[in-house]
Amino acid sequence: MKEKPRSNLLLFGLFWIQITGISCLQTFDREPVSTEVNPGSDTKLDCKVLNKKGSCSWQKDNKPVGIYFKKYEWVNADETSGDCSLWIRSATLDFDDGEWECQITASDFTTQDALTSRPVRLIVRVEPQAPRIEYKASAVLPGHNVTVKAGEKASVKCVSRYGNPPAKLKWFLGDDEIVAKSNQSNSPEVDNRRTWSAVSIVEIAAEKAMNGRMLRCVALHESYPAKSMGVDVRLDVTYSPEVRLVGTPPNDVEEGRDHVVLKCITDSNPPASVIWRRVGKQEIASLEESLQFRPVFRRDSGTYTCQAQNSIGSSQPISVALDVKYAPDIESIRPDRVTTSQLFHPVTFTCAANGNPAPSYEWIQKIPTSLQGEFIEVIRSSESRLHIANITYEHQGEYFCRATNVINGNEKRKLSDGITLQVVGPPHIIRHVGGREIVVMRGEDALVRLVVCADPRPRNSTWLWGSVQVQPGSGVGKYQADDLNQDRREDCYEARLHISDVDIADSRNYYLSVENDRGYDKYGVHLAVREPLAMATLLSIATGCLLVFLLCVLMAVYAIRSERCCFGRKCRGDFRPTDLESEKSDIDSTMGRKTPRIEASMMGNGPITIPGEAMYCSSPARRQHPQHTILAGSSPEAIKVRRAAMVLQAPTMV
C-alpha cells in the first residue's frame, strides 16, 4: 500500500520536469511588424524574447546588419533583458528600405531553440510624381476632353510614378467613386528599383448622361502634403439629341393671372435645333427653346410637343398638357327674379355655371336677423337644382345660387343674382318657437309667446283658454295680450300673452287662434306652475346628506383599524403555524378541498406564506365556526357586514 503513493509521486515529478523544461525554451514575446517611415526620421523595429539565452542579431534583405552608433542601436543594451528591439536612425531609401528579420541564436548547441522572425517590410516613403491621365496612348492635359461616342467603351489610364510605397489610385465620375470597373497594377521603376510605378485602367461605357461630367483620378500617398493628389479630365460624349422639359407648372395655372414659360432643354452633342407644335394644329407653335404665355388664357389650353434634331439624329418628342383654370361664371338661373308660390306647394330652382375645375353648387336663402341690414345664410341645397316639395313661410325670402371651385387651394366663388320667393296662403303658427310647455314658479310672471306667419296679414287673432277669450291689445284681470308685432321675417308676426302673479289654477293650455282671407290656424301652449321649494326643506336635505357622509367615513376608519389589530395580534405570537394549518384543514374539510402547507419559516428572512383564511379573521370564535348562518329576512347589507372580514387585503404591520 505504501509503494503506490511513491510511484504516483515519481510520475508527477517527471511530468513537472518535462513541463518546466519546455517552458525554458526561447520564444518570441513580440515579433517585428511592417513599418513606414519618412526619410530622415527614426523608427523602431520591435523584437522581444521570453527566456532569452542566445544572442540577438538583425538582417536586412537576407544580409546581417551590424550595430552602429547613431545608425543602428539596441533599444535596450542589457542582453539579459530579452529585448532585441532595434532603433534605425535617420532612415534613408537606399540603406534602410527593405525586408528585415530579427534572429536569436540557440541557448546552447544541443537545445536547438534558435529563433528567426517573419520578414517584415520597412518602407522609407518617397513622394510619387503627380498623377496623369492617358487616353489612346496620349497624355490628356488636366481639364481637357476625352471624346467618345455614346454606346462605346473608353479605356482611360492613370499613372503615378516614382513613389514608395506605390500610390493607391482611385477613380471618380463626378462625386461617385468607380470601384468595379477599374484595376491597379504596381511595378518597380526601371531606373530606380526601390520606387514604384502605379497604373490604373478604368473601362467606361459611355452614355449620354455622362457628357460633360468630370473624370477624376486621385493618387493617395502619405508623403503628399494633403495625403492625396488628383487630376481631372472632361468626358465629351457625342450622341443624338435628348430633350427634357422645364417649366411645367407644379400647381394650377389661373387665367389672366399666371405666366407660363415652357423650356425644351436639349442634351445633345453637337447642339440641336428645337421645334414646338400644338397637338391638333398644323402650324408650328415656336422654333425657340422656350414657349411663353404672358399671361395665360383659357384658349391656350391644350397639349404641346417639343422635339430636337441634330446631325446625328432626332429626339423622341416630349409632350406637356396645359390646363388653364378659371373661376366660375354663372350662365343662367331659373325661374324668374320674383316667384310667388302657394303655401305647401312645390317649387324648383335651377342654376348653370361654367368653370375649370367644374364648380360645385349651393342654393342659399338669406334670412334677415333682428339687427338692421344683417342676414343669416341658410344652405337649402348642395346641387345645381333646388326642389322644395312643401313651401312654408320659412322658405319665403331671397335665394342665390353660389358656384365654387378651388384653384391652388383658394376657393373661387361666384354668386348669382337673387330670386325672391313670395309665399301666400292661410295663417301658419310656427310650432317650435318657445317650446310646447312653459314652466314657472308660483308667484312669478309668465309670458306665452307664439309666432304666426300669414299672407295676407291676419285679420283676426284671439287668445283662448277655458271660457275666456282675449283679443290682442286688450286684457282680463291679470291677463294681458299685446298687439301683433312684426317679426324679423317677412309676413311673420309675434303674439304675446302676459300672466301676472301666476297661481296653481293658471296651469292649463293657452291657445292662439289666427284667421285671414285664405284660412285659419290654431295652436296651444301648456303653462305648468310649480310650487317653490322651501328653504327649510333644502337645509334638511343638506344636513341629512352630510350626516350620511360622516357615518360612512367613521365606518371605514373602524373597519381598517379592526383589521390591523387582528393581524397585529397574530404577528406578536398569538398563533402557531401548526394551529393555522390545523384550522385551515378544518375549514377546507368543511368546504370539501385540501389545505396547502405553510412553506416559509417564521424565523426566516424571506416572506411568510399564510393562507388567506388564517390571515383575515375577526375573532377566535369565527375561526372555530367558519360557516355563516343567514337568518330569514336578513338584508343584503347585513350579509355584506358579516362577510366583510373575509375580503383579502395586503397585510399591514402595526
From TrEMBL:
Chief site of localization: membrane
Residues annotated as transmembrane: 533-560
CDD domains reported in the protein's UniProt record: Ig (cd00096)
Localization terms from the record: Membrane
Keyword Nucleotide-binding: no
Ig-like domain span: 5-116, 131-238, 241-319, 328-420
Record membrane topology: Single-pass type I membrane protein
Signal sequence, start to end: 1-24
Keyword terms, alphabetized: Disulfide bond, Glycoprotein, Immunoglobulin domain, Membrane, Signal, Transmembrane, Transmembrane helix
Keyword Signal: yes
Coiled coil: none
Highest rank taxon of the organism: Eukaryota
A GO-annotated cellular component: cell-cell junction
Gene Ontology BP annotations: cell-cell adhesion
GO molecular function, a single term: cell adhesion molecule binding
UniProt-listed PANTHER family: IRREGULAR CHIASM C-ROUGHEST PROTEIN-LIKE PROTEIN, NEPHRIN
Name under which the protein is recorded: Irregular chiasm C-roughest protein
Source species: Cacopsylla melanoneura
